[in-house]
């Protein structure tokens, strides 16, 4: 497989930030190209990622994805540049429009014009990168600007954008250096790549200039049915309970009836019924779940989609440490 392998880990799976660094060491030893973590309502990502960067030598370090509502644009630029220094140039910064729940119920902000805000944050970050100042006049932000005390950066970290919809993905192509989508079938991803390419052209770039790293969540186990049950529960929950965006995206990829049934079960808070409403064929489209051989083949096929540069593999709910190790080892054979 020519595509790289990224490992996505969830901070909530660990008792101490140092354990994220231990996972990063495992990932590097197995041959993964990059480690990435998300940030929602748990730990701040910076300490565990800094530890991971410090204790590895070649492993790329990323985040999936920071909210543009949780920090000021200048602080996001400071964070990205600090992480790039800590990782000796191996860092990629990830940002996405976020969601109403995280924005309003955690950060206490109004979920207003998320795409415009994401674009302006990226532009302000680039001002700090390239000019050494956040000075900016936009629709949302007006910043007179002070000088970044370290000056313009000679090696700023690339900016990856996590999006789902057509206009958002066009924005990612136009203003980002990479794209990190999630919950796409192979055909759905190919269709959305057209939007990414259109955005790249608007930004004076080629599609090949962007690092395309779709996120998939799966599990490998010799107990095939147990693995599929765990993946089914996680994917169904994401479609029905994670707000509207994942469900709407998968519905638009050809499964509106499936999403409607899962959402109806979530209205009753019936997670068993949610899982039962996710058919085998749709699970197979969205997640690598089964024996190590099946998972390895699924990831290989996904990585062969034209324009995909990396497959970013994350875990599902309910996995034991043995499950995680088996999954990592199965996928790492592709490295």
Mean pLDDT over the full residue set: 97
Along the chain, the helix and strand elements come as EHEHEHEHHEEEHEHEEEHHHHHEHEH
CATH class of the largest domain: Alpha Beta
Which CATH architecture of the largest domain? Alpha-Beta Barrel
Q: How is the quaternary structure best described?
A: single chain
CA-atom Rg in angstroms? 19 Å
| End-to-end gap | 7 Å
The description of the largest β-sheet is: 9 strands, parallel
Structure classification: alpha/beta
- Domains (count): 2
Categorize the overall geometry: globular
Keywords: Oxidoreductase
Organism: Natrinema versiforme
GO molecular function: oxidoreductase activity, acting on paired donors, with incorporation or reduction of molecular oxygen
InterPro entries: F420-G6PD/mer, F420_NP1902A, Luciferase-like_dom, Luciferase-like_sf
Account of the 3D structure:
By secondary structure, the chain is of the alpha/beta class. It has 2 domains: 4-221 and 288-332, Luciferase-like domain (TIM Barrel, Alpha-Beta Barrel); 223-287, no CATH class. The chain is 49% helix and 13% strand. It has 14 helices and 13 strands. It has helices at residues 17-30, 46-54, 73-86, 100-105, 114-131, 166-175, 186-202, 224-241, 244-252, 256-267, 271-276, 280-286, 292-303, 321-332, and strands at 4-9, 34-37, 60-63, 91-95, 136-137, 142-143, 159-161, 178-179, 211-212, 215-217, 219-220, 289-290, 310-314. The strands form 3 sheets. It has a 9-stranded parallel beta sheet with strand order 9-8-7-4-3-2-1-13-10. A two-stranded antiparallel sheet has the order 5-6. A two-stranded parallel sheet has the order 11-12. Helix 1 (17-30) crosses helix 2 (46-54), helix 8 (224-241) packs across helix 10 and helix 9 (244-252) runs antiparallel to helix 10. The chain is globular. The N and C termini lie close together (7 Å). 49% of the residues are buried.
